[in-house]
Amino acid sequence: MRQIITKFGGTSVSSRETWDHIREITENHIKAGLQPIIVCSARSQASNKLEKMCKAALIDDHQDIYDELKDEYLALADDLGVDKALLDEDLHQLKKWLTGISLLKEAPPKIRAQVMSLGELMLTKIGHAYLDGQFATHWFDARDALQTESILGGDEVNYLNAYCNPKPNADLAYQLANHGAKAVITQGFIAANTEGDTVLLGRGGSDTSAALFAACLNTTACEIWTDVPGIYTANPHQLPHARLLKQLNYNEAQEIASMGAKVLHPPCIPPVRRANIPLYVKYTRMPLHTGTRITQESDDTAPPIKSIQVKHSITLISIDALSMWQQVGFLADVFAVFKKHEFSVDLLSTSEFNVTLSLDDYAVKRPREALDALLTELNTLGRAKIIEPCSAVSLVGHHIRTVLPQLGPALEVFEAKQIYLMSLASNDLNLTFVVDESQANKLVQQLHILLIENNPQSFYYSKSFHEQFGKTRERTMPWWESNREALLSLAKTKAPAYVYHAPTVQAKAQQLKTLTEVDQVFYAIKANAFEGLLRVLEAEGMGFECVSQEELEFVFKLFPKMDPKRVLFTPNFAPKAEYAFALSKGCNVTIDSLYPLTHWHELFTNHEVILRVDPGVGAGHHKYVCTGGNESKFGIPRNHVKEAASLAIKHNIKVIGLHAHSGSGILSPNLWQETALMLASEAEHFPHVRILNLGGGLGIVDKPSQSPLDMEALNASLSAVKSQDQKLQFWLEPGRYFVAECGVILSHVTQLKTKGRVNFIGIDTGMNSLIRPMLYGAYHEIANLTRLGEERTGFAHIVGPICESADTLGYDRLLPKTEEGDVMLIANTGAYGHCMSSSYNLREPAKEHMLEE
Fold first, then answer.
1. Domain of 19: which CATH number?
2. Are 495 and 825 in contact (CB under 8 A)?
3. Cβ pair 225, 12 in contact under 8 A
4. Whether 767 and 692 share a structural domain
5. pTM (two decimals)
6. Average pLDDT for 84-89
7. Which of 276, 332, 408, 559 has a C-alpha 20 to 30 A away from that of 137?
């Protein structure tokens, strides 16, 4: 009979509901002609409680923890309808061991291993009784199959973190297969040494047990059933937009597990890799979910970055030593000290006068005195110091060295962050950065957006955790789908063309009106100054934000009776005359540099102004839309704000508002609250400030995997700030949010070409009409409007006719079979499209048109 390993972790064995799933999974395997070997962890948190019991018993304070654990196991037996008496012997033995620890005032590793083994032993006895009532099930003691080998580290390692090298055991496989039982249940985490003593395989060792059994019995597969549906591009509990990895090879999975993913214990992979047994990570609550498959197969066409992982609680040791310059054996002396004090090194970086390294996970479990002793001896070789707490952020994939030139934008997220150590693995599977622990999670989020969510090959990944298991969001049909016939008709004579949809702009304005905590909204007309759009927004009561005198003149010409206070002038490095023009019109004027205050102060005397403050950090989907930080040309640095306040008092300039803007395309509502709090703190320097302009940057959904900006959360976050000072007014100045979704580009297919495995679809306009993909790496949905709704059968790059290699509007887009003359539609082009177009190659850009309905 063929056998399969099914391992279930603590959360998967702790309730009647999960045991019903285990029964269903087991029955499915039996129906498929397999004998499941069920490897079980202890009940959730049981190992932690048993470990605490050992420590508490040293001071005779273990009874409450014992009673809690006992009640939980008896309750599970009750839930499963099995006889609770089957636990009596083990509970009695546990009490005897704890009493012994209490009397002797010591808990040697041998006894601790025996105590902690009871979590799995009791659990599998309960599970056996439950399953045996459904189908014939055999209870098997893992210690009769798994034997460990002695390694360096003494009893602490050999009893609590033991090493096992499995050997194929055909006799045991035959014995279990012919026992007469349809399934076998056994324990994870525990094994026996050569003397027959109970030993543990380390915390998380149940995964390892499953792999060891798979190799020992040469099973058809090894399944790890857990509380997530597989291995993701990041931790899905922390990053809901992390995407499922359907397929990995052993080496990639090993790196992902080793660099912080909790779904797999790293030592579980070598046994199945050596035996070439497929490993599956699956979801207990959804037995039919495909999960992640791990084999020796590699896919060179897959994206090079598979996952971004973070490992916290990293301890670094840095050693400065002038004496190491050209000194033979210096590193050998350093590592001899680590060996003497029994510390293992993980990552290493060296320079001419410095060695920086990280300690492996086991270091955090060692007494602090041991680390101090290590540091003392290292100081005899140089100046040694500990850096903690740190985190390791790792990019995991394949052929990472080949994509280093493309990582520039990704590495920019580390700007102004302290990187203590950087390591590129020689196997070309991971690139790791060690940073302050406080920065790590945000870095992972930013890197994931840049390298996974914005990857042109994102189709390779499966659905995100949020898409599959989050709050379902009904797809809103874009306006261009419902207006398909009108667009196709227009394209016959007008394409290439920009087409704007007035009702969509109106709807976006009405969405912003739901922000009750925002007192005034201005439309940033630099996004799109098309007259028809401006008329819609003016009718909706929106103000206008201008960045040049030409924009001001255009607005006042279009709306000559408009209240000038509905106009906001926010120039950057503009000439003096433009400020004078804005002041003469009576509109709101923003100053974003000390220069006008020091050199043109007479211009602003007795006037009300707004000062733009640089928040110090930027945000957004690309460095060129991040408008904060030392490298940005915008705003007054925060350390110059007091000087600005002094200049305002000196020259009788009344500062009534503060302004900050971090970037564009932001979908998290937290940023505007952070900006409001920052500006509110700086407002203390200005007695007349009543306006806080929080900028724009409100993002839109560019990809199906994204969730829209939560307007209710944004409003609530601003309300929390305003409640502290009711006199404050909040302003916003979005641009793209208003108009991006209202615009599309229509174009005709000109040619089709295939080069190797790459297909190209050429259209009759390109970067001359839309430069955002080339300038920002921006993503725009592209659809074949002629064949909308037909099956999408192949991938292609969408390219324009401009004589530049960069003239690519979309990479690897999945489209129906496309032919010359088809109408291609590029979505979300209403912002920063036509206004940034050119006549490069003397090709005129797409002309603008408006749909009123």
1. 3.40.1160.10
2. no
3. yes
4. no
5. 0.65
6. 95
7. 276
